[in-house]
Amino acid sequence: MAQTTPVHPVDEVPPVRQLAAFGLQHVLAMYAGAVAVPLIVGGAMKLSPADLAYLITADLLVCGVATLIQCVGFWRFGVRLPIMQGCTFAAVSPMVLIGTTGGGLPAIYGSVIVAGLAIMLLAPVFGTLLRFFPPLVTGTVILIIGISLLPVAGNWVAGGVGSADFGAPKNIALALFVLVVVLGVQRFAPAFLSRIAVLIGIGVGLAAAVPFGFTDFDWVGDADWVGISTPFHFGAPTFEFSAIVSMLVVALVTMTETTGDLIAVGEMTDRGIEPRSLSDGLRADGLSTVLGGVFNTFPYTAYAQNVGLVGMTRVRSRWVVATAGGILVLLGLLPKLGAVVAAVPAPVLGGAGLVMFGTVAASGLRTLTQVDFKGNNNLTVVAVSVAMGVLPVGVPTIYEKFPDWFQTVMNSGISAGCLTAIVLNLLFNHLPAKTGSAGAEPDGLADGGTEEGVEKSREEVV
Question: β-pairing, 300-302 with 85-87?
Fold first, then answer.
């Protein structure tokens, strides 16, 4: 009998019922973050409710298309891993500045298109830098991603930033109830149900929230049934030098963040990232960002929120996330469905987010267990990198006196921590060792050029 080649878990196609459940779970995990960027930018520019609704539906549509490009892929576009795509928060401050100082939305979209093209051109360059991401760096970056996301979950638990009842005991109680449901399902339910523990927790939490007045569906009736985004709805793009420069800085930040997310998912799914696949993933980011500029939305990047969901559920199929992309396309074309999903209260998402984002941090710690910390400076690399990554998360205004480009880079805990880890790894593990140090400590790094215990192959780490 002929033996069939086993299919890698990333390429497995689950039954339709499971695809729908797993995909919806991913959508719920990232929906709040996906619509936050257009809400913030549109609100700062004082757009009308109709224009805000248009921005949100356009964003959801391109989110779905970008996710499909990343997961399914074509030619040299797409990493072909379970990666959700969404608007990057790194671009919020520059876009608000561009939009409110006379350039308006056309100037934002012009700079977004240029940034997307730049990402596509720079993708092969970033691919060659993969050797500077050994487990020492990747484990630290994954840990920082998880830690940086926890305040997001904390804000959801309290009721959402700007809510009138922020921090109310009833919000925290609802979030803890959802957390208990998620943990209970994961521990005691059958295998299939445990994999959709987050979806069940959100569903049960929503059912409990409605009678207590946390949300209502009255405004769902006001939403349109069909909404189609047309290119350059707000006018032809304009290309202003200062706007383009600031968005190019954002592009470098998002490429750094995406690199960390892709490596994290690669390790969680047992399919290590190689230079070519990294370039393909970043190239998909660039194409999605160009589409964002054309279809009235913003720069796109891999969503760290969903990295935690992959690690928690251990569902590694990219077709699950591709299904989530299809659901987002439907939400973008059918605003009434989007309004239903938007009715999920923030505390419900917060209870689930605590588990998901904590899973990301725990995955980083698991990767760091493969690193040798004896007789070398690897502990210093991790310590300082985590400190630099947590600094802007704990003290958001720490860099407000610095230039805009510096704030764009360093206000993102992920990019700040990632850059610090790369630089310190080069300093301690690639530069020549101090005179007389070679061979002095058998567990250390002789000659400063080899990274025993630091730069193991991805297969060994997994």
Answer: antiparallel
